[in-house]
Amino acid sequence: MSSPLTRRGLLGLGGALGAAALLSACSSSNDTLPVATPSSTTGKTVFTQEQYDALVTSGPVAPAEMVSQNAWAQAIKAHGALRRAGTDTSPIFSLRNPSTNRLKGFDAGIADLLAHYILGGSDVAKLTEFSKTTVDTRETMIQNKTVDVTIATYSITPARAEKVAFAGPYFVSGTAVQVKRSNNDIKSYADLNVDGKKVTTETNSTAIAAIQKFIPKAEVTLFTENDACVAAVRQGRVDAYILDQSILLSNAVNYDDLKVVGEPFTTDPYGIGLTKDDPGAKTFVNDFLTKIFTDGTWKKLYDGTVGPYVAGEAPTPPALGGVPGA
Amino acid sequence: MEIIRSNAGVLLDGLTTTILLTVLGYLGALVVGIVVAIFRVSPIAPLRAVGTVYVEFFRNVPLLSLLILVAFGLPDAGLLLPLFWCGVVSLIASGSAFVCESVRSGINTVSLGQSEAARALGMGFGQQLRLVILPQALASMVQPLVNVLIGTLIGSSLCSAIGISEITNVTQQLNIKYAEAVLLFLVSGVAYLVMALGSGALGGVLERRVARSSHQRRQVQA
Amino acid sequence: MSTQPSQRILFDEPGPRGRRTIALATVAVALLIIALVIVVLAQLDAHDQLEPQKWFFFTQPGFATYMAYGIVGTFRATLVAAVFAFPFGLLLALGRLTRQPLVHAVCVGWVEFFRSIPMLLVVYAFLLALPSYGLNLDIYWKLVIPMILVNSATTAEVFRAGILAVEKGQSEAAQSLGMSARMTMALVVLPQALRLVLPNLLTQLVSLLKDSTLGYVVSYPELMERGRILTSYTHYLLQTYTIVAVIYVLLNFGLTRLAGYLQSRGNRKSAGHRGSRTELAATTMA
């Protein structure tokens, strides 16, 4: 093994910069540590904060009467900010920069664009109020109205749709396979459907169903945290980590001894979790999604967040509805 | 109730895992704890030092911190144990520190005159331990040792945090799946209660037994 | 050589031959320990785990501050839980000692229940179950309230033992002076009991501090949770979790030493009052 400090591109940031970032992270009472901004692997570049803010403020704004006629949107306008549940440790979808305390990523962008659609204005930092959520608390936070929306790589499923309403899908991902970079035996999920192969995934993730359906012979170990699953793969406790491709890609960015193999073997449509009590919420958010799909905002957001990590051009935005639960 | 019936297998597996973790952890802790107690009272200074460091480390380290270190830290040094055994090893390490202290303070309750008298009668080390010290020390050791058993049982729940499917973990997963919180938590809560109270009662019986037999022995000796 | 009580119980002072055997064994054991340490270090080195930056990353001010805030979080949970759990435990102990049957039964039930179930189960209840019944607390309280509930029960037992350890003669004397049962408890028994249980309350604090590690489960940023987050940044699992464990040991070691000191002082003060001695509780595993 060569020197880890030079090997780990991430820690390239380390030292003084990391320390400074951490210091400010602590003094601003922010409780998460950064995973450094990933570098590009495809030629497209990740948004800077300025580019990101510019995209949000150039996004569409709903006509005033549209907001005032919708009770859900009106309540957000009255509150002055969109309350969003999400994560702040996902390098591609929603990652906090500790030196500015700002969130950036595809999900963060959808949230900020939605907030801007309702509220307008140019101070992007003040558009949303963020609450951290985990796989275990996503439904509850919507049901008890702790938040207005959950935008958190949140797959639409019929079971979840019994508890919350889903607008979207706004992004289509799929369950994929992550293995150690040095592992050349496993080229797709099919190679794992063998007695004695061990896989891991997160509790309460959609991957559990995918494993039962596509890799029934593998032995499954469940952890509640992405970190624990990553450790299990890297330390050889399991052969592969099965989860949503976008999260696995983030891991591969974060840990250079991991890779994602094969194409996704399921389709995971991400939706925006909303209350079931007010059907107007879903209508309003779907209108918003249609707007950013057609005016090109969605593609620009994709290119500046997910695009740099996925080979090929940006896909066409998904069709609204059309999946069970949406 | 339907949920309990249709998931009886999973719940029972969880319960079995909890019991296995507890029993293996406790038996291991008894063995290791007694060995460390012997270290701590031995006349060999380095052994005493090892014993002291061992006890101070493992009784002061939070079990969860230890579990995570064993499950996710040690593999980086090439020590990759199956998760179940990570749980057992951590329970043994933590429990044995308390067993050691219970045994040591049990021995300390025996008055010095007793062993001096035994030695004056020409008893050897083994005889002395078996006939004089242990019968008296045992009575005051039973309760703390039962407490370690209950501590091991309760501690085994933390194995849930490193992905071992014991009863707490099963409860939590079923709860996510079915959102039948009250019933599920009640069932596993009662399971723990029964096991803990059962161990406690067993301890009570043992304590009376030991007390009676050592009392009788003393009467015979007198 | 030093002779602890437990050694004097088991062994006579060694004679000249005994001393020689002990000296030999000491050398042999010392060599064995050194060999063991070398094996451990070799094993670590074989897996590249000894590189200095892997162990000293946390001396960088940013990391150090980050972990220091973790310790602050640990104290914030531990001390606040203690502030609630200790008086609550005292009330439960008094309730358990009262002759009022209903109060007695409720207190016994409460204590036995929370003494017997794992705190993690209570944490999961607050984290996963209760929110769907409308009780959705801040993450901090999802950690601290289970700590209070579980430790109220164990603390109650500490207080009860303390109250029962106060000599009977004390309350008899007070009552013969015409004090009511309540006055006797408040003015005579409790003050003595509190002094008796002080060391055990510190042990109880150790137990609370250990329980605060469950912040890892609810994502409350105490030391354990911050350690976890740190690993996703540094990727040094072994080192970070070892350092976290050592910090916990040092904190708890300090508290147990303080408890031992208070214990020995208390015992010296009440020397001769054999009945008023309480053994230091050593049952705070998890």
Descriptive report:
The complex is a heterotrimer of chains A (326), B (222) and C (286). Chain A is an alpha/beta fold and 326 residues long. Chain A is built from 13 helices and 13 strands. Chain A folds into two domains: 33-173 and 269-309, D-Maltodextrin-Binding Protein, domain 2 (3-Layer(aba) Sandwich); 175-261, D-Maltodextrin-Binding Protein, domain 2, CATH 3.40.190.10. With 222 residues, chain B is mostly helical. Chain B has one domain (2-221): MetI-like fold (Orthogonal Bundle), CATH 1.10.3720. Chain B has nine helices and no strands. Chain B is flat and about 70 Å long. The mean pLDDT of chain B is 89. By secondary structure, chain C is an all-alpha fold. Chain C has a single domain, classed as MetI-like (MetI-like fold), CATH 1.10.3720. Helices cover 78% and strands 0% of the residues of chain C. Chain C has twelve helices and no strands. Chains B and C meet through α3, α4, α5, α6 and α7 of B and α1, α2, α5, α6 and α9 of C. Chain A: Residues 84-309 form the Solute-binding protein family 3/N-terminal domain. Chain A: Keywords: Signal, Transport. Chain A: This is Glutamate transport system substrate-binding protein.
Based on secondary structure, the structural category of chain B is mainly alpha
Seen as an oligomer or otherwise, the chain set is heterotrimer
Q: Considering the protein shown, what is the CATH homologous superfamily of chain C? A: MetI-like
Please give the CATH class of chain B: Mainly Alpha
**Average predicted local confidence, pLDDT of chain C:** 86
Main location (chain B): membrane
Membrane topology (chain B): Multi-pass membrane protein
Keywords (chain B): Amino-acid transport, Cell membrane, Membrane, Transmembrane, Transmembrane helix, Transport
Subcellular location (chain B): Cell membrane
